[in-house]
């Protein structure tokens, strides 16, 4: 019996997890997934270290919540480094193995922007991005964020440590007011609390000690 099936995920997603050998959720997945599915739309804070399975904690419910028949960009995932955004996009693609209708595009600095622009033109329901490259694409009008339903900040404390505070504010200003924000962070410094206060309304909070 796959324990993920008890968390409210669709049969389609659970079947993929079976094939790739995901059977037992980590604590952050066990707590976050039911909240994100049952209380949708809801703002959410997940306090967990790297390596606790955060990508699946937000990625699995997100795949069930995306409107597959709508080609517009509905979810934006931001993370601090190109290694991390590539890793997130790779894992999400793996979770979509039997659901090719969901298109995931990853954008980051240090790679040709022209290739990323042409991928974005082909309908990208989920965009995984580093803040710097995303600002660049917004300024070139290569990406529209006006239909975003979900803005996800992964490793939020790291993004702030790396100086992306203004970029995050700038990017979120292009998204609709009614979108929800899911924030994942290992620590909760005052700057993260500022983001929570500014962009979230009564967020559900899950903290996992590792």
* Percentage of residues assigned to helices: 40-55%
Strand content: 5-15%
Oligomerization state: single chain
In angstroms, what separates the terminal alpha carbons? 26 Å
Strand order of the largest sheet: 3-4-2-5-6-1-7
The Cα radius of gyration reads 16 Å
User: How many H/I helices?
Assistant: 9
**Helix-and-strand structural type:** alpha/beta
Q: What are the low-pLDDT stretches, counting only 5+ consecutive residues below 50? A: none
Give the biggest beta sheet.
7 strands, parallel
Q: How would you state the average pLDDT, rounded?
A: 95
Total strand segments: 7
Secondary-structure element series: HHEHEHEHEHEHHEHE
- What general form does the structure show? globular
Report what the structure shows.
With 210 residues, the chain is an alpha/beta fold. The protein has helices at 11-20, 27-38, 54-65, 82-95, 113-121, 131-139, 156-161, 165-172, 190-199, and strands at 44-47, 75-78, 104-107, 126-129, 150-153, 180-185, 204-207. A seven-stranded parallel sheet has the order 3-4-2-5-6-1-7, with helices on both faces. Helix 5 links the parallel strand 3 (104-107) and strand 4 (126-129). The two termini are 26 Å apart.
Features:
210 residues, alpha/beta, 9 helices
């Amino acid at each position: 019996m796959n324990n993920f099936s008890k968390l409210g995920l669709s049969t389609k997603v659970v079947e993929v997890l079976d094939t790739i050998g995901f059977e037992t959720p980590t604590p952050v997945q066990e707590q976050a997934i039911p909240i994100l599915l049952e209380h949708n739309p809801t703002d959410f804070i997940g306090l967990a270290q790297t390596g606790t399975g955060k990508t699946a904690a937000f990625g699995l419910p997100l795949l069930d919540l995306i409107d597959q028949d709508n080609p517009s960009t509905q979810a934006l995932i931001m993370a601090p480094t190109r290694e991390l955004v590539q890793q997130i996009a790779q894992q999400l693609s793996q979770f979509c193995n039997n659901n090719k209708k969901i298109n995931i595009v990853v954008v980051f600095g240090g790679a040709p922007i022209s290739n990323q622009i042409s991928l974005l033109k082909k309908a990208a329901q989920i965009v995984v991005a580093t803040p710097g490259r995303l600002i660049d694409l917004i300024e070139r009008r290569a990406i529209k964020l006006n239909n975003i339903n979900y803005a996800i900040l992964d490793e939020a404390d790291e993004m702030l440590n790396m100086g992306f505070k203004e970029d995050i504010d700038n990017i979120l200003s292009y998204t609709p007011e009614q979108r929800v924000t899911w924030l994942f962070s290992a620590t909760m410094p005052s700057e993260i609390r500022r983001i929570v206060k500014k962009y979230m309304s009564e967020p559900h909070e899950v903290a996992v000690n590792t």
